[in-house]
Amino acid sequence: MPVFDTHAHYTSQAFDDDRDAVLSGLKEKGVGKVLECGVDYATSIKCLELAGKYSFIRAAVGLHPEEVDTIEGVQEELARLRPLYENPLTAAVGEIGLDHHWDNPRDVQRYAFEEQCRLALELGLPVVVHDREAHAETYEILLRLRPRGVLHCYSGSAESARTLAEAGFYFGFGGALTFKNAKRAAEAAAVIPPGRLLLETDCPYMAPEPYRGRRCDSSLIPCVARVLAEIKGMTPQAVIAQTEENAKALFGDWQP
Question: At CA 115, angle to CA 197 and CA 189, rounded to 5?
Answer without folding.
Answer: 15
